[in-house]
Amino acid sequence: MSDLLLTGATWFDEDGSERRGDLAVREGYVTEAGSVEDSYGLTTVDADGLVVLPGFVDLHTHLRQPGREDAETISSGSRAAAVGGYTAVLAMANTDPTTDTAEAAEHVHALGKACGLVDVQPVGAVTKGLGGAELAELGLMHRSRARVRVFSDDGRCVADGRVMRRALEYVRAFDGVVSQHSQDPALAGPSACCHEGELSGRLGLPGWPPVAEASIIARDVMLAEHTGARVHVAHVTTAEGLDVVRWAKARGTRVTCEVTPHHLALGTELLGGYDPVFKVNPPLRPDEDRDALREGLLDGTVDAVATDHAPHARHDKEHAFVDAAFGMLGLETAFSVVHDLLVAGGPLTLADLGRVMSRSPARIAGLEGHGRPIGPGEPANLVLVDPAARITVDRDASHSLARNNPWHGRALTGAVHTTILRGRVTAREGEPAA
Amino acid sequence: MRHLLSSADLTRDDVRLLLSTAAEMHEVQRRDVKKLPTLRGRTVINLFFEDSTRTRSSFEIAGKWMSADTINITGKGSSASKGESLRDTVMTIDAMAVDCVVIRHMASGAAHQVSQWVDASVVNAGDGTHEHPTQALLDAYTMEQRIGSLDGARVAIVGDLTHSRVFRSNAITLRTLGADVTLVAPPTLMPSGIGPWAEADGLTLTDDLDEVLAGGPDAVMMLRVQRERMSGGFFPTAREYTVGFGLTRDRLRTLTEANPEAVICHPGPMNRGLEISADAADAAQSLVLDQVSAGVAVRMAVLYHLLAGEEVAA
Fold first, then answer.
1. d(Cα A43, Cα A76) in Å, to the nearest integer?
2. Annotated domain spans of chain B
3. Inter-chain Cβ pairs, chain A and chain B, closer than 8 A
4. Cβ of A320 and B197 within 8 Å?
5. What class, spelled out in words, does domain B7-131+294-307 have in CATH?
6. Chain B interface, mutation test: which of A323, A326, A403, most B Cβ atoms within 10 Å?
7. How far apart are the first and last CA of chain B?
């Protein structure tokens, strides 16, 4: 492993103040910051014009392995993550087989380690086989080598209030957290596939009403209060749902939430052409909701930006709209999309992105080596971003195996330049290290 | 015109042209020898993923009377349930160099998607709960034959609007032709977002059928109500639906007294005794069989304009 000297970099201290200088990275740690006295043996990275942030942490990634290696593998997903500036990703449990046992969690964890481009932290299922009825082996997954602390049936809502209550009670013992896909299945038909509103009415597509999200969030924050456990609301999409989170936080409830780049940037009107690339669960919402999500990021109601990176084999997206698979790619584009939307023209700062894309998600997931301040003695899990770069997204240049990329052809300002995991460069200018 | 996917694709002039061509085609139907040479050498595939004797045979006859080679491909269930993607299914057909694909599919938007993939012209013959543009054209044609121009005519559409592609296409085409459209349904069968939708498109909403009929509309279009909607909780019982929204014998009298010239449409198949009484279905004002007859002429007009160019048939 070659040690690094990042020259002329900009970064932020814990209080948010901007620093400029050199950073020395030795044996996986930042050893000096500011002016580096001894650069012997260091490989220089010219970081002039670049900003160093703590490596991004994705609370919500689908890597598809085991089971759908034609859509994505832990290896291809890791490459995409590294290129996107991520140093840790939480791999969702809806694989085949489901990550609902210690062995399954260790398997995913070990595959991630073997690849080594990003820390792959498995998420455990809340219920066996995502069936919603019986608890999965929550404690054994936690005690396994994978040290699972985040549990989710993502893709499905833990709809049964009794099951959700027991899960929260159970994971509280080891400070675990349940990440909920908040969507009451009883409030929509089985083929719901978009936002319920005027457009879905005109298109003749069955939709999810916003209340299906908000009502589950309301129930879950009350259960979190009742049990004293932590609940995390995955991919909030509605103004109503976010209002409930804001209210619960004001009460002191242990609740956190995430939003995705696509729910911030893309609207339900994109469904007018019935292109399944824009079919995602939860669905793209109208402008009012997107405004509310951005407001939530600004006022701190939203803790994290998470990708919900959901690769699919091409043929699974080439069915009629209601039959096509849900989800879109996100790992490689998340920083550029959010930077272009909310930093290049305001109101957020790069320091804010460090908070919502690294520090807060690392804290929520309990990942101790990630999302740390930038300074001597801290693990060198870093991302160098170029705020001035102009890119045009090309789906065929993706390192994901999948091509369901809703950003294809978009011109964006801001790009990830270099990703560093424990002192090692894992990706540089769009190319993974391995 | 390359495809006919949505009634919104058609301007008022387009609709007028299609309806006048349909009138000429209707004349041809009355001849002893019905066959025209117009589409000789053209191939029309009727790709029906969903059962529909009425619409499929109507398109088939339309193609045959214009000398097109028409081939029916029917398959129950979506290709997804058989493991093949919709794109693969239609690309297979497109590879046979057909000129026109008439598609009926249980999924909304299927015709739009298919039109992105194939070289052939695509006609939407009903996609899920989205649209059925040739039905709207034949309804307009039938009504105009009986009551004259629809410009300023008052038309009520009654029933399960949420799940009706006939309603969606009719609302568009009727507005395009200048009709006043009133939608009548219980709140649970009004489509989502109908409030702003109705406002934007100039549609009137009500759940009071009696009031609408007493106002003497020029046409009343009854929509089929599927009995399985009851289990979906959209309304409590068939009886309650009929009392609230059925065109019963009493309501037929109300309508006739208010406007003796009023006509009654139904896209079929009818649930007699549920949304329409036998008296109404078989009344002199009923256009149900005229609709079927007009269906062939209208579909001839559509195929003609898609495949044979823009000049009106001789």
1. 27
2. 7-131+294-307, 133-291
3. 87
4. no
5. alpha beta
6. A323
7. 20
Six token digits for residue A132? 């919603």
A308 is catalytic: yes
Distance of alpha carbon B146 from alpha carbon A370, whole angstroms: 75
CATH 3.20.20.140 is right for the domain spanning B133-291: no
> Which pLDDT does position A1 carry in this prediction?
56
pLDDT of residue A38: 78
Q: Encoding tokens for residue A431? A: 């190319």
CA separation for the pair A68, A430 (Å, rounded) = 25
Q: Supply the ipTM of this predicted assembly.
A: 0.94
In sequence order, which residues have a C-beta less than 8 Å from that of residue A236 and are 6 or more positions away?
A182, A213, A217, A242, A245, A257, A258, A259, A263, A293, A296, A302
- Distance (Å) from the alpha carbon of B76 to chain A's nearest alpha carbon: 15
Nearest 10 degrees: CA dihedral of B196, B199, B202, B207? 80
Tokens (6 digits) for A198? 């005027």
All residues of chain B having their beta carbon less than 8 Å from the beta carbon of residue A205 are 108-109, 128-130
Contact check, Cβ <8 Å, A204/B165: yes
Most A-contacting residue of B3, B94, B192 (CB-CB within 10 A), to test interface: B192
**CA-closest candidate to residue A372, choices A384, A382, A364:** A382
Given this model, what pLDDT does residue A39 score? 82
Contact B107 A321 (CB under 8 A): yes
pLDDT for B154: 98
Residue-wise DSSP of B239-265: HHHHHHH-B-HHHHHHHHHH-TT-EEE
* Domains defined for chain A, CATH in brackets: 3-51+377-432 (2.30.40.10), 55-365 (3.20.20.140)
Answer yes or no: is pLDDT of B232 > 80: no
Q: How many CB atoms lie within 10 A of CB A129?
A: 16
Query: Residue A141 phi/psi, 5° resolution?
Result: -65, -40
Could you tell me the pTM of the whole model? 0.95
Residue-by-residue pLDDT tens, chain A, 434 positions: 579 999 999 999 988 899 999 999 999 999 999 988 778 889 999 999 999 999 999 999 999 999 999 999 999 999 999 999 999 999 999 999 999 999 999 999 999 999 999 999 999 999 999 999 999 999 999 999 999 999 999 999 999 999 999 999 999 999 999 999 999 999 988 899 999 999 999 999 999 999 999 999 999 999 999 999 999 999 999 999 999 999 999 999 999 999 999 999 999 999 999 999 999 999 999 999 999 999 999 999 999 999 999 999 999 999 999 999 999 999 999 999 999 999 998 899 999 999 999 999 999 999 999 999 999 999 999 999 999 999 999 999 999 999 999 999 999 999 999 999 999 999 999 999 97
Q: Do the first three CATH levels of B7-131+294-307 and B133-291 match, i.e. the same topology?
A: yes
State how beta strands A431-432 and A424-428 pair.
Answer: antiparallel
According to DSSP H, which parts of A50-124 are helical?
Answer: 74-83, 102-115
DSSP-assigned beta bridge partners for residue B4: B123
Residue A181's Cα: distance from chain center in Å?
Answer: 13
Give the burial class of A109: count Cβ atoms within 10 A of its Cβ; 0-12 exposed, 13-18 middle, 19 or more buried: buried
Interface residue A269 vs chain B (CB under 8 A): no
Q: Which two tokens stand for residue B116?
A: 């992105």
3-state secondary structure of A392: strand
Could you tell me if B128 lies within 8 Å of chain A, comparing CB atoms?
yes
